[in-house]
């Protein structure tokens, strides 16, 4: 057994963990202290790599293809590093997030990866893990507490890429061109990041005007309703940017109802890189999507846990908030074949 001794606060108990559950899954965290530790880990915790070395992943919901891919990446990262991986499905249940994470901690794991249903439930989970000398890597959604690393897609850059695409297509065409934005649900931090950079870039260009920004509630039906409203109020709308692919898919259906199509020059962009959006792009019914890489993030999460266990630099992009930003890319019909091939190689 490899032991890396630390002073540990033994204050976390299961009852506190269960009491920590609350609403607000996407509320901003008021958490990370940034610390002055070189690895970003809690200054009072020294981690222990147990034998056999096992990493636990408490995953949001394995019914969702995105988290299936993320889980596959975690497993692949573990296999590549020669470590065991145990996956627990939270089934979108905040109580199961807490109890499942605690169960993993009690299995003598050496590292914990959590995709939280409710970030507000994280602090007690993290305290319990640290009491057992276990580093905690938060995998997407949001953060709270004294976590050791947070991995998320570079959502702000994704919004900027979407704006860049729109400007490339219409920036030199006489305007102004009217643009609609479909947001994620209120309080979604990642949604705010995806929208803010897009809006800032488009607003800086005199040839565009954002005439509507509506909540699509992250769903196909919500995207349909939002797009229907903005198209009804703005029949000359030329662009819709949706902060996730489900909303974009709904928007495409609303476009059909309104007699609008990508083939006629309308621009429709989503965000995620989901199979449904990729299929629409191939069919010429959607312009582009900003694709995330959940599989790659899963691999990176394992690498980060191992770096923390060894006391190495976790290579944060934002050291103050212990955050690693994972790259995103814009996918269009032009680069679809290469993108599909790269994702097939992950299987």
TrEMBL record:
Its main location: other. Residues 55-312 form the Periplasmic binding protein domain. The keyword Magnesium does not apply. The lineage of its organism: Bacteria, Bacillati, Actinomycetota, Actinomycetes, Micrococcales. One of its GO terms (cellular component) is cell envelope. GO terms for molecular function: carbohydrate binding. Belongs to the bacterial solute-binding protein 2 family. This is Sugar ABC transporter substrate-binding protein. InterPro entries: Peripla_BP_I, SBP_2_dom. PROSITE patterns: PROKAR_LIPOPROTEIN. Residues 1-25 form the signal peptide. Keywords: Signal. Pfam families: Peripla_BP_4. It is found in: Cell envelope. It comes from the Bacteria.
């Amino acid at each position: 057994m490899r032991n890396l001794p630390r002073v540990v606060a033994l204050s976390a108990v299961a009852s506190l963990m269960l009491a920590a559950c609350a609403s607000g899954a996407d509320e901003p965290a008021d958490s990370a202290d940034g610390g002055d530790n070189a690895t970003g880990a809690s200054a009072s915790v020294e981690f222990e790599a147990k034998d056999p070395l096992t990493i636990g992943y408490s995953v949001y919901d394995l019914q969702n293809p995105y988290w299936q891919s993320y889980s596959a990446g975690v497993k692949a990262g573990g296999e590549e590093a020669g470590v065991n991986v145990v996956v627990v499905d939270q089934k979108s249940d905040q109580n199961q997030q807490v109890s499942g994470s605690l169960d993993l901690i009690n299995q003598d794991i050496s590292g914990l990866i959590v995709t939280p249903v409710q970030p507000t439930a994280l602090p007690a989970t993290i305290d319990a893990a640290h009491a057992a000398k276990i580093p905690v890597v938060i995998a997407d959604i949001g953060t709270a507490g004294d976590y050791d690393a947070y991995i998320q897609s570079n959502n702000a850059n994704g919004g900027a890429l979407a704006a860049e695409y729109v400007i490339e297509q219409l920036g030199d065409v006489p305007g102004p061109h009217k643009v609609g934005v479909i947001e994620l649900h209120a309080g979604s931090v990642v949604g705010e990041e995806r929208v803010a950079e897009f809006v800032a870039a488009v607003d800086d260009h005199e040839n565009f005007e954002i005439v509507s920004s509506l909540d699509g509630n992250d769903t196909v039906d919500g995207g349909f309703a939002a797009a229907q409203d903005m198209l009804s109020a703005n029949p000359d709308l030329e662009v819709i940017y949706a902060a996730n692919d489900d909303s974009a898919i709904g928007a495409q259906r609303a476009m059909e109802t309104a007699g609008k199509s990508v083939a006629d020059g309308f621009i429709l962009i989503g965000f995620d890189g989901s199979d449904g959006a990729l299929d629409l792009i191939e069919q010429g019914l959607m312009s582009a999507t900003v694709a995330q890489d959940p599989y790659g993030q899963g691999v990176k999460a394992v690498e980060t846990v191992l770096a923390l266990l060894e006391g190495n630099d976790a290579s944060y992009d934002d050291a103050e908030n212990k955050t690693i930003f994972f790259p995103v890319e814009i996918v269009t019909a032009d680069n679809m074949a290469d993108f599909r091939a790269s994702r097939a190689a992950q299987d």
